[in-house]
Amino acid sequence: MSDPGLAESIETTEIDYMELDRIIEEDFNNDKENLIMMLQEIQRRYNHLPTPALTYLSTSIGVPLSQIYGVATFYSTFSLEPRGRNIISICLGTACHVRGGEKIREKLEESLSIEDGETTEDFRFTLESVRCIGCCSLGPVVKINEDTHGRIAYTEVDKVLEKYE
Amino acid sequence: MMKIESTKDIEVISENYSKKLYYPEAVKVNIGIASCGIAAGAQASLEKAAKEFPDNNGVSINQTGCIGFCELEPLVEIFEKGKPRLLYKNITEDKILDMIQDYREGNFNKKWILGQMKDPRSFLEDDIQNPIAGVSPLEKIPILEDVPFFNKQVKIALRNCGYVDPDSIEEYIARRGYQAFIQALKDMEPKEIIQAVKDSGLRGRGGGGFPTGIKWETCAKHNGERYIICNADEGDPGAYMDRSILEGDPHSILEGMLIAARGIGSSRGFIYVRNEYPLAVKRLVTAVKSARRYGLLGDNIAGSDFSFDIKISTGAGAFVCGESTALMASLEGKVGRPRAKYIHTVEKGFRENPSNLNTVETYANVPVILLKGADNYVKMGTTHSKGTKVFSLVGKVKHTGLVEVPMGISLKEIVFDIGGGIPRKKKFKAVQTGGPSGGCIPEQFLGLGVDFDELIKVGSMMGSGGMIVMDQDTCMVDVARYFVDFLKEESCGQCNPCREGITAMLDVLTDICKGNGKEGDIELLEELGMMIQKFSLCGLGTSAPNPVLTTILYFRDEYDAHIKDKKCPSGVCKPLFHYEIDEEACNGCTLCAKRCPEEAISGEKKKLHHLDLEKCINCGICYDACKFDAILIQ
After folding, report:
1. I want to staple B297 with a disulfide (CB 3.0 to 4.6 A). Which of B19, B228, B291, B403 is the partner?
2. Domain holding B211: CATH number?
3. Considering only CB atoms, which residues of chain A are within 8 Å of chain B?
4. Residues B465 and B481 placed together within one structural domain of the fold
């Protein structure tokens, strides 16, 4: 994960603090042990982890921001930068790898003109490689948002992308 | 809502729901709704069928878990009292209604049917009458139990996957679920429970193969608030048996944990599940809620002084969190870094308290051990590995899917009999077991009986049970590079040997794959490997060099070809090969030319084609497309 993109997220993301309180207190009992799940919930709302939300979280549950930053950058699910409307997860698990997952990644990178981990300029897509989503019998697999596309061929990639606005 | 207090209560529920399970009033349709089924279109089939038959008017539409034969998903089972139970294959949305009609009208279209079932009972119910006994089987439709994919399998951990509705605790109970737990609670001393697990010889299914009973016993000896933790962070790429159990039979895990809690003396349980498995999380949440409703989780369970509850925590995408100490750190909401284990987690683990960690498949085995007795369980398997193991058979194999086989079965039987061998008449090269920490096993060991110890002898390991088949088109140097790249990304970075050692190995391997390999690289890899194995802090590091060391051991010729001849014989490492058209084999079918994205192939119909190497980008589309093996790797 790269630079947190502090300035950008402060400017562009409006945080609903009432809702944040609800997540922290009601859903997760103000309990530090639930930090990872709180971050997941925040990311679900904002599509990434906006810095102001993390600062607020830090004071609420009494965990230093440095530690939250540590957690947010250690686990691969989290992104500190705004992500695209559609998240493409290209599976690079072993089964997909031996069935040509790498070629599909190259094709995605070429079609979207971005590299692994990047977001298109129009925020339509973010491309992320993941290690095994457990659909190994259907490799190579591409997951876009919640849809899993199994046994995808190089030539089908563009057609699949068209479905997502 | 009634609370379950005794075996009698269980029997009442069981009786009621057995009818629904085995002798339905209406035609019963079970659609396999697990992640791979959904990816193949099962959800759409379910919705369409449910819309067509909204209120059980003659047909009831149900969901079930993974039936296992993932290659043929969506799989749909259909049956009616007095008629054969059939399993239909590849039933996508467009076929589901026709399929139901096909069954009701008794046409039984052979092309759509995988087989008919001989006996739907689970391993646990062999003392009840076979519910389809007396139904005359259909001619010319294969018996499922005789289909090569199924006939060598013995389902213990997967006993309910694909048979019950995973969201229905009652159906689980109807398959003798929670009976073992109530028995353990009412009729057994905690020590007896642990003894039974010890006697069964059950070893941890997560990879290491540590004897489960001994772990429980050690944990029980330490004082403090003890925790029962389930490792559902199935991170090994190419392995998804735990997902299948989580999605298809979550109650078997809860019951296993309850028995462990009773044996060890614990009142708090945790399931740490991968965030990448959203359906598994959903099913677990439902399962925990319904268990609470029946009083099987909570305070004073079944009127006893025993209390136990489970919290579900989700991971966030870190492979290292499959390691016990890292997992516990992550459960505490911290960065998932392992620690040295001079004090074991059974003594000081989660919250510095005694913690018993087992994996999903291990817990799923426990109820069966108690119900069938350890003496029955030990009859299956080898001297030091008892019972069965679930493998996910994937990669270059015809029948991909989940298979549960007795320990000791040969690799050959798994890959060729169950898996049907390699597709497209290609040649078998290796089978990779044990995930990124395992090794690649070559053809000469295909006769090997698979158990914990035998796999270690050939440089690999059981791991969580991924079995990835590789054929002639898989480059072993590239595979080694792939795993090392994976481990470099997933190394937590706190100890030098792992962090720097793996990076150094990756640099060497990347050079070799790019054609910049040099004399002495192999020896350097071996030296680095030895160092990482000896000095890393946790299991991720100590096993990280395995894929490299085993590929060097068994496929040194491929390394030599890359380094000395600058060639990739399998046609994977792009700078090290090019394609050519075989003048004799090419019959001018034009398929390759049509598919080529760079228009590098030219030629008229029925005449020899020509490949322009200047334009060719080595994408391999022509190689995959050609049906006459006329594209050669040079």
Report:
1. B291
2. 3.40.50.11540
3. 31-37, 39-40, 63, 67, 70-71, 74-78, 92-95, 97-100, 103, 130-139, 141, 146, 148-150, 154-155
4. no
Same domain membership, residue B355 and residue B239: yes
* B556 within some domain: yes
DSSP for B351-387, please give it. GGS-EEEEEHHHHHHHHHHHHH-HHHHTTSB-SSSBS
- Reported as type and span, the H/E element at residue B113 is strand B113-116
Residues B614, B540 share a domain: no
Question: Residue B531's domain is classified under what CATH number?
Answer: 1.20.1440.230
End residue of a domain, out of B376, B410, B439: B376
B558 with B587, same domain: the answer is no
What b/e string do you get for B95-104 counting C-beta neighbours within 10 Å, with b at 16 or more? Answer: bbbebbebbe
**B491–chain A nearest CA distance, Å:** 10
Q: What is the dihedral of CA B446, B449, B451, B456, to 10 degrees?
A: -50
ipTM of this complex: 0.89
Percentage with pLDDT > 90 across chain B: 83
Closest CB from B243, B333, B624 relative to A134: B243
Across the interface, whether the CB atoms of A98 and B395 are under 8 A apart is answered yes
Contact A94 B432 (CB under 8 A): yes
CA distance linking residue B22 with residue A22, whole number of Å: 46
Question: Would you place residue B25 in the very low, low, confident or very high pLDDT band (cuts 50, 70, 90)?
Answer: confident
Q: Which tens digit of pLDDT belongs to each residue from B555-580?
A: 999 999 999 999 999 999 999 999 99
Give the closest of B40, B401, B466 to A94, CB-based.
B466
Return d(Cα A105, Cα A142) in angstroms, integer.
9
Q: Are residues B433 and B455 in the same domain?
A: yes
Residues of chain A with Cβ-Cβ distance to B161 below 8 Å are: none
Q: What is the pLDDT of residues B496-510, one digit of tens each?
A: 999 999 999 999 999
8 Å CB contact of A98 and B396: yes
Predicted local confidence at residue A99, as pLDDT? 84
Query: Containing domain of residue B463, as a range?
Result: 388-471
CATH number of the domain within which B607 lies: 3.30.70.20
User: Residues B459, B502: one domain?
Assistant: no
CB of B206 closer than 8 Å to CB of B225: no
Q: Tell me, what's the pLDDT at B601?
A: 93
DSSP B313: E
* pLDDT score at B39: 87
- DSSP three-state, residue A86: strand
pLDDT at B309: 98
Provide the pLDDT for residue A12: 63
Q: How far is CA B41 from CA B76, B96, B276, B317, in A?
A: 12, 11, 19, 26
Q: Say yes or no: B225 and B255 in one domain.
A: yes
* pLDDT at position A7: 45
| CA distances in angstroms from A5 to A8, A50, A53, listed in the order given | 6, 9, 14
| Section B355-376 average pLDDT | 97
What mean pLDDT, rounded, does chain B reach?
Answer: 94
Is position B208 within any domain? yes
In a domain, B571, yes or no: no
Residue B162 lies in a domain: no
Which of B246, B279, B394 is the best residue to mutate to test the A interface, defined by the most A CB atoms within 10 Å of its own CB? B394
| Closest to B271 measured CA to CA, from B216, B238, B234 | B234
B270-297 pLDDT tens trace = 999 998 899 999 999 999 999 999 999 9
One domain, residues B329 and B437: no
Extract the residue ranges of chain A whose pLDDT is less than 50. 1-11
The residue out of B565, B586, B621 marking a domain boundary is: B565
The total number of structural domains that make up chain B: 5
Average pLDDT over residues B56-80: 90
- Residue B43 confidence (pLDDT) above 80: yes
